[in-house]
């Protein structure tokens, strides 16, 4: 059975191992930030827009179903199984290709612009990595695939650390998708 990290890397690479934080954040809590504070929490209206984009992506990822190879290890993949995993991962490519434009189209929040810029940057890297990971799997490129699995783990950790302080819920769609 794959580790939870492996499962996250393979099943939902947009979420790619996001560590689910145990404390829920109420989206309407804006903290002590001033209205134009670029380092404060992101305004709730913007978070709601982002959550809508993430929820739509999550529906598409879920349509692919659970990862069918329960013994697959992303950090030590079986080269003969890698192309099969790649074929399954390829089902999510249209969503991974669409998300960067959707993320960018959100524009800028009223507050927390610096935090959003940081989250957006990581999320965009995450999407590019997910596309590369799928291609590596399809080509049975074990070295490339393992490198993207490690990168996914790093990006997921960075996103998990950035989302909640910015005002996103630890249980929201963006915590599962980004």
Topology of this structure?
Blueprint: H1 4-11, H2 44-63, H3 82-90, H4 93-105, H5 113-138, H6 142-166, H7 173-177
Question: Would you summarize the structure shown here?
Answer:
With 178 residues, this protein is mostly helical. Helices cover 60% and strands 0% of the residues.
Average predicted confidence as pLDDT? 84
* Class from secondary-structure proportions: mainly alpha
Give the % helix. Answer: 55-70%
Instruction: Note poorly predicted spans.
Output: 1-9, 11-35
- The proportion of strand residues reads under 5%
What profile does the largest beta sheet have? none
Number of strands: 0
Compressed to H and E, one letter per element, the order equals HHHHHHH
The radius of gyration over CA amounts to 16 Å
**What is the number of helices?**
7
Q: Quick one: overall form?
A: elongated
The separation of the N and C termini measures 24 Å
């Amino acid at each position: 059975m794959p580790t939870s990290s492996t499962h996250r890397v393979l099943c939902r690479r947009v979420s790619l191992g996001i560590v689910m934080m145990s404390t829920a954040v109420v989206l309407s809590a804006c903290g002590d930030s001033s209205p134009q504070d670029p380092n404060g929490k992101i305004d709730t209206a913007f978070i709601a827009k982002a959550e809508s984009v993430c929820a739509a992506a999550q529906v598409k990822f879920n349509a692919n179903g659970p990862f069918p190879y329960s013994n697959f290890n992303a950090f030590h993949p079986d080269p003969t199984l890698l192309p099969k995993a790649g074929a399954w991962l390829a089902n999510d490519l249209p969503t991974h290709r669409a998300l960067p434009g959707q993320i960018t189209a959100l524009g800028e929040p009223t507050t927390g612009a610096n935090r959003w810029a940081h989250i957006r940057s990581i999320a965009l890297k995450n999407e590019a990595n997910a596309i590369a990971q799928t291609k590596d799997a399809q080509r049975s490129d074990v070295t490339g695939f393992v490198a993207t699995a490690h990168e996914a783990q790093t990006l997921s950790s960075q996103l998990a650390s950035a989302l909640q302080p910015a005002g996103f819920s630890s249980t929201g769609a963006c915590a599962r998708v980004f």
